[in-house]
Write a structure and sequence with these properties.
Elements lengths: L1 H9 L10 E9 L2 E7 L15 H11 L23 E9 L8 H4 L2 E9 L4 E6 L5 E3 L2 H11 L12 H9 L3 H11 L2 H254 L12 H14 L15 E3 L5 H8 L6 E3 L2 H13 L8 E3 L26 E3 L2 H11 L4 E4 L2 H9 L8 E4 L4 E3 L5 E3 L13 H77 L6 H112 L10 H21 L6 H60 L5 E7 L4 E7 L3
Parallel strand pairs: 8-9, 11-12
Antiparallel strand pairs: 1-2, 1-3, 3-4, 4-5, 5-6, 7-10, 12-13, 13-14, 15-16
Length: 952
């Protein structure tokens, strides 16, 4: 045992995680005299015969970490662990304390040594030392904190599993006991117990905390009250000093205020005298203004009489002018009537002349129009002939284009049908690959490389084997699961060689084959699996070294490892893998198999998936696989292969969809062009007969126009035109003469009208001036009344000011006497004058306020001698209370945090149990047809799982 300890000591790695056991030392413990073990970084194996003390070391670890004797199931009292004949036993364990989460690293260092000494009488004592071996603490509570920090649970069977507990667990089949074991392993029972005790501690501490808070508030309020009384006493002393200063200031303020009053009265007297002088001056000004206004009234009255006389003269002139205007107006109306008669006669003569002239012009114009129309219609006939010829040519071109478009449309429709079929095939392929990927990603998905339903199929027949009664012996397969490729580059070639045999199963009897075949039908796999009947006693691999193909290339047998000898022999019997060779590429394989290969080479397979057979006829086969699937070296490689294939299919699908959209757009465009050309051709076919008819009609119209031009009389009547023109000129001369007479009358009328306008404007000006003069007379009269009223008011004001001046002089005399008395009184209070910026009223109010406050404070502070002592004692009590309350609050907060953490642990463990049960149900339901509901519940732990599964 000492040699083992030395070997373990040499392999110690210092890079241990927090809580790992670095060293274990045992003295006089059970069967061990003295042993010192240094443990490795990862897994440590302790090997020995029965009774050599392996379990004793595990018990020593549990005892060192604080377990009782009964917890180890190796005794009822610690004294039973002391070696027979010895007085004590000692167990020492060294724990790693390094890392960011270490426990008080500055105190203990990188290691914590826990030592427990056990006496022969059953007593024990702990010593917790730092990394230097110096004892830091001897309390069991400190050990509990260290174990909690390092997440060490010596009572947890999941961490330390004793022999007795493991035997009991393996014999347990009862669900309640298994659940109890789960609670114990996950420490759920202990956490619940801690949680309940924590909640109880919180409930016990809460009344005390509330009472302490209330007492603290009352004490703080009392201290505030005492502090306020002391501050009030200090303010009382300040107020007494202030009252003396205010009294002096008050006495001299009285002198100042009386002096200011005298000055104010003197200023008031001077102001009154100036007001009297100003009022006398105003009275004199009002008298002068009244004299000036009286002279203005006389002047404006004379001006108004003159304006009235001038206005009457202008009115008489206006009446004479208006009489002349009426006479001119009557004469103008008579001449205007004559002018209208002359204009009417001239208009009639002109109309007759213009009418005849217009008829002659119309006749010539009609002749020109007929000639022009004849020429236009002749041109139009030529154009119609040319247009008919062009339309016939276009019609031939449109017919040719339409035939070409119909051919193109048929080709595009065929392309669209092909693309749709391609898209449908690619969608089916992508759905299949998605299903394959989902199965490969699921638990047990490694078997999905053989068939999509292979994982479920294998689990089902294995459950049937465990149940018993279905198979005489367990089937072997799929065979590809026992085959491993030595070099991944040959994986595709070997898979192409073995092909369907990778999915095959071996059974021993015919009944086993029928049972397995019926089961495969349920999973829709019967067409993809080969069932081989082979006796299981043939479990010695064949020696085929003499019959193996002799060539420069490796055989399939040499490039695979087959873990099952029965599978090994089966593949040799059925596939002849020792006679099939592997070639690096297709060209080299083709050349080799063409040049008469050896007789023992049945076939060759290239690394890129091609197969070649030379006998009886030379054949070359291509593989439909792009990469290895069943023989993929890893599940990740299989997934990568499926994902690459899926991405390739999706790329082809997207490309096909884009091509389909392009073809549809082309087809739609060609269809629109076809319809447009067809419509244009139909319109052209409709237009040609109409154009021919139009040409015939124009030919007839041309003949009619020629007859009309030849039969009509186009000569002009010049004599009648000259006679009518002379008559029109005579009447027009009469009209011009009458218009000259009317113009002279209009000039006379405008002149008389100007004179009337001039006289009316002059009359309006005189009326306006007269009106302004009368308004000014009224304003002057009103101003005279106002000035007279102001003069009377100023006289009254002068009398009032004289009385006020006499009273002010008397007040000045009285105020001077008061000033003398105030000076005498102030000298008695203070020999030196006291200056102040405040008013007498402010000083007086402050003095009254200070006297009142002093009286109140002296009455209130009659017992102020012991206030300071009470304040000091209460302040000390408050500090002690505050510390106690802070400690209580911190304790309450820590307990609450522990309760929350324990509650979270309970919820986490319950959720974990629920998920585990759910996964078990899912796994069960996955391979069974089940309908209805399945409910699992545990009332004590408040767990409930509800599963609903549809048929199939």
């Amino acid at each position: 045992m000492s040699a083992s300890a030395e070997e373990l000591t040499d392999n110690v790695n210092c890079n241990l995680s927090l809580g790992c056991i670095k060293r274990l030392r045992v003295r006089n413990f059970m069967c061990h005299r003295d042993i010192d073990l240094a443990l490795g970084e990862r897994v440590n194996f302790i090997v020995g015969v029965n009774g050599s003390g392996k379990s004793a070391l595990l018990s020593a670890i549990m005892v060192a970490l604080g377990c009782r004797a009964v917890d180890t199931n190796r005794g009822l009292n610690l004294s039973e662990y002391v070696k027979e004949g010895e007085s004590f036993a000692m167990v020492e364990i060294t724990l790693c304390n390094s890392g960011a989460q270490s426990y008080q690293n500055d105190v203990y260092g990188d290691s914590i040594i826990v030592r427990r000494r056990i006496g022969a009488n059953g007593s024990s004592r702990y010593s917790i030392c730092n990394s230097n071996g110096i004892v830091v603490c001897r309390k069991y509570a400190t050990l509990r904190l260290i174990l909690s920090k390092m997440n060490i649970q010596p009572m947890n069977p999941a961490m330390i599993l004793t022999q007795d507990f493991s035997r009991n667990f393996l014999n347990v089949v009862d669900g309640k006991r298994l659940y109890s074991f789960f609670n114990r392993c996950t420490m759920l029972d202990q956490v619940k117990s801690y949680h309940q005790s924590t909640l109880q501690a919180i409930a016990e501490c809460e009344p005390l905390r509330k009472k302490k808070n209330k007492d603290f508030s009352d004490m703080k309020a009392e201290i505030d009250r005492l502090y306020k009384r002391i501050m009030l006493q200090q303010k009382l002393q300040d107020a007494k000093q202030r009252i003396e200063e205010v009294k002096k200031e008050h006495a001299w303020a009285s002198v100042t205020i009386n002096e200011e009053k005298v000055k104010e009265l003197e200023n008031l007297s001077a102001s009154i005298q100036s007001d009297i002088a100003e009022a006398n001056k105003n009275v004199e000004q009002f008298r002068n203004r009244l004299l000036q206004l009286t002279s203005d009234i006389d002047e404006h009255q004379q001006k108004a009489v003159q304006l009235r006389n001038q206005n009457n003269e202008v009115r008489e002139k206006v009446m004479l002018v208006q009489r002349d205007i009426r006479a001119v107006k009557l004469e103008e109306e008579e001449e205007n009537r004559k002018l209208k008669i002359f204009k009417a006669d001239a208009k009639k003569a002109e109309d007759k002349f213009r009418e005849l002239q217009a008829k002659e012009q119309e006749k010539q114009k009609q002749k020109e129009n007929l000639l022009n129309e004849k020429e236009k219609k002749a041109k139009l006939v030529e154009e119609l002939k040319k247009e008919i010829e062009d339309w016939n040519n276009h019609l031939e071109v449109f017919t040719s284009d339409i035939h070409m478009l119909e051919s193109t449309i048929a080709e595009e429709e065929s392309e669209v049908r092909l693309l749709r079929m391609q898209i449908k095939d690619l969608q089916i392929r992508s759905a299949f690959l998605e299903k394959q990927l989902s199965i490969v990603e699921s638990p047990g998905g490694a078997l999905a490389r053989f068939h999509a339903n292979m994982p479920h199929f294998c689990e089902t027949w294995k459950e049937m084997v465990e149940t018993g009664g279905y198979f005489s012996k367990a089937p072997i397969g799929p065979l590809g699961n026992y085959v491993t490729v030595r070099d991944p580059k040959w994986a595709l070639a070997i898979e192409n060689c073995l092909h369907n045999y990778l999915n095959s199963f071996i059974v021993e009897t015919w009944d086993d084959m029928k049972t397995l075949q019926n089961l495969s039908k349920e999973f829709q796999m019967s067409d993809d699996i080969i069932f081989i009947i082979m006796p299981y006693d043939n479990d010695v691999p064949y020696d085929v070294s003499s019959g193996e193909a002799k060539c420069i290339y490796p055989t399939v047998l040499s490039m695979v490892e087959i873990s099952n000898p029965i599978v090994y022999n089966t593949l040799i019997d059925y596939v002849s893998i020792e006679k099939k060779v592997l070639v690096p590429n297709r060209e080299e394989m083709f050349e080799y198999m063409e040049n008469n290969p050896p007789e023992d080479v049945k076939a060759a397979f290239s690394a890129d998936g091609w197969e070649c057979r030379a006998r009886p006829v030379f054949r070359l086969y291509a593989s439909d696989l792009e990469g290895p699937r069943c023989l993929a070296s890893t599940n990740a490689e299989l997934m990568q292969s499926l994902q690459n294939e899926y991405q390739g299919v999706m790329s082809e699908l997207n490309s096909a969809k884009q091509n389909l959209e392009t073809s549809k757009m082309k087809l739609e465009k060609f269809g629109e062009e076809h319809e447009r050309r067809k419509k244009e051709m139909e319109e052209m076919e409709d237009k040609i007969p109409l154009t021919v008819e139009r040409e015939a009609e124009l030919q007839k119209e041309l003949i009619t126009l020629e007859d009309q031009i030849s039969q009509s009389n186009w000569d002009t009547d010049d004599e009648l035109l000259a006679e009518l023109e002379n008559k029109f000129l005579i009447e027009d001369e009469k009209v011009r003469k009458q218009e000259a007479v009317m113009e002279r009358l209009n000039v006379s009328y405008r002149n008389v009208k100007e004179i009337e306008k001039k006289y009316l404007a002059e009359g309006e000006e005189l009326s306006k001036t007269l009106k302004d003069t009368l308004n000014r007379l009224r304003e002057i009269d009103n101003e005279c009344v106002a000035v007279t009223s102001q003069r009377d008011e100023e006289n009254k004001k002068i009398a009032k000011l004289n009385l006020q001046a006499e009273a002010t002089l008397q007040q000045i005399s009285d105020a001077e006497n008061k000033v003398m008395l105030a000076i005498d009184s102030a000298k008695l209070a203070s020999s030196c004058p006291v200056e102040s910026d405040r008013t007498f009223q402010e000083i007086d109010e402050e003095m009254k306020s200070l006297l009142m406050r002093i009286a109140i404070d002296e009455e209130y502070l009659s017992d102020a001698d012991d206030l300071k002592q009470q304040l000091d004692s209460r302040t000390d009590e408050l500090r002690e209370y505050e510390k106690e309350l802070e400690s209580l609050n911190a304790c309450s907060k820590e307990i609450q945090e522990r309760a929350d953490e324990q509650k979270q642990n309970i919820v986490f463990l319950q959720n974990k149990l629920s998920q585990k049960v759910q996964r078990s149900f899912d796994k069960f339901l996955k391979h069974r047809k089940f309908t209805g509901e399945l409910i699992f519940s545990h009332k004590k732990e408040n767990l409930k799982i509800h599963v609903v599964m549809q048929i199939g």
